[in-house]
Design brief:
Blueprint (H helix, E strand, L loop, with lengths): L1 H14 L7 H25 L18 H21 L2 H24 L7
Helix pairs in contact: 1-3, 2-3, 2-4, 3-4
Length: 119
């Protein structure tokens, strides 16, 4: 996983050739990354022994290790930003909007079932 992240980050210089990044793009990306962070913290809470919950993300498995959770969310945040920067403005907004909707659903569902996070 670490090698994959490193390889992707090394390619980022070539990916930033799409339409100019706007203030709206920044706002949408901050929204997505904030939700990704909330999901990350909720997932760490879910994986704690005795939490009474289990993870439903098939990529992580029902009881992922702390390291797997951290690597997954670091990679997903970085890859999302890289993909958003690489897309043209027209596609970027749709990608960010769908990503925000998916993360909102995950965070909202976790909250509804009682997963609380203390920062």
């Amino acid at each position: 996983m670490k090698n994959l992240i490193l390889a992707i980050l090394m390619m980022t210089g070539q990916l930033f050739a799409a339409d100019p990044w706007t203030k709206a793009d920044t706002a949408l990306e901050i929204t997505y990354q904030s939700l990704n962070f909330a999901d990350w913290m909720q997932t760490l809470a879910i994986r704690e022994p005795g939490s009474g919950y289990y993870e439903t993300n098939k990529m992580l498995g029902r009881h992922p290790s702390r390291g797997s959770v951290n690597a997954y969310f670091l990679a997903s945040g970085a890859l999302h930003y890289i993909a958003a920067r690489a897309l043209s403005g027209k596609w970027r907004r749709g990608f960010q909007a769908v990503s925000i909707a998916v993360e909102s659903q995950a965070v909202g569902n976790n909250y509804r079932i009682g997963v609380r996070v203390k920062l």
